[in-house]
Write a structure and sequence with these properties.
2% of the residues lie in helices and 46% in strands. The protein has one helix and 20 strands.
């Protein structure tokens, strides 16, 4: 009988700039050809279809947030950069290479009882296939040292004096019983073309750009909203993803957040919930991702060596 060849999820690896993505859950590649109908005078139908200059390939990734893993929010050049990237997808049949890749949007989603997840959408200017490069069973990876963030160790806090801010349960203080929260950014890049070239020279973000933050919480008290103020209040919101087993924290700190809407909902046999929506201006310093780890100094802490060995993130062999 003829053998069947298939591509399983365990036989697929995705790289961005030659760095493998850990925690990846789904990937989707979509090729939509942009074209223009070519008509002629006196004809009732289209003669031809010609490609336009803005041909892109969409690549969508869904991933789990893990420590020291893939995170599109965490970039040295900031989300507004115009640096081109390269994405490689390798499986048991071939290697798919996307060049001239730009980040288009990204999001972080947190829910009660769920592992934090993120999404990232990219657009590429060019693609290529190489059937001489492929994976075998010996290329499978296990990522045994990957650590997830537990839902009960995730907190949301606000800056001091931010009256319109939402604060979750932490340190014995509970402002709202937050059920879910999300951060999302859409960059809305515009292509810059040059006469005589099909591929855009660059894709720059169309400013100004506002990111969005949303919360859903069980109603435990009333939230006063001042609708008489001419200027909306601004403050900071901090998402803190902790991993107490290693005393490690991943923080998303967002400045200049403004409350834009509050809604209340209630269903039969359910709890009353309140939804809060915020906006923040996106710039290279407004959204920061911080990795907080303890300082490991064994030379001066031999008396507490057992604690240090348990709490510090030592390099893996």
């Amino acid at each position: 009988m003829p053998s069947a060849t298939r591509v399983h999820s365990s036989d697929t690896q995705v790289f961005i700039d030659d760095v493998i993505i850990t925690g990846l859950q789904t990937k989707n590649v979509e090729i939509n050809r942009e074209y223009q109908d070519l008509n002629s005078l006196g004809s009732t139908h289209n003669k031809d279809k010609i490609l336009t200059s803005n041909q892109t390939v969409s690549i969508n990734l869904d991933y789990l947030v893990v420590d020291y893993g893939f995170d599109p929010f965490d970039t040295d050049a900031g989300l507004l950069n115009i640096d081109k990237q390269e994405i490689k997808i390798v499986d048991t049949t071939h290697e798919f290479i996307a060049t001239g890749v730009y980040l288009q949007s990204c999001s972080l989603d947190i829910s009660v009882g769920e592992t934090p997840r993120g999404t990232a959408s990219y657009e590429a200017d060019g693609i290529a296939y190489d059937d001489q490069v492929f994976l075998t069973q010996l290329d499978q990876t296990q990522h045994q040292n990957v650590n997830l963030f537990r839902p009960q160790e995730i907190t949301v806090s606000k800056s001091a004096g931010f009256e319109d801010g939402v604060e979750g349960c932490g340190g014995g203080i509970c402002s709202f019983c937050i059920q879910s929260a999300s951060i999302s950014v859409s960059l809305n890049r515009e292509p810059v073309n040059r006469a005589g070239e099909m591929v855009p020279r660059m894709r720059y973000p169309s400013l100004p750009i506002n990111g969005e933050i949303s919360f859903e919480a069980v109603k435990t008290k009333m939230k006063d909203v001042d609708i008489s103020s001419l200027v909306l209040e601004k403050g900071s919101l901090i998402f803190d993803l902790k991993r107490s087993a290693k005393n490690y924290s991943l923080q998303y700190s967002i400045k200049d957040c403004s409350l834009t809407s509050v809604s209340e909902g209630l269903d039969i046999d359910g709890n009353a919930t309140m939804s809060f929506s915020y906006q923040f201006p996106l710039n290279n310093t407004g959204l920061r991702v911080l990795k907080i780890t303890p300082e490991c100094d064994l030379e001066n802490e031999w008396g507490n060596i057992d604690i240090w060995l348990d709490e510090c993130d030592w390099p893996q062999p």
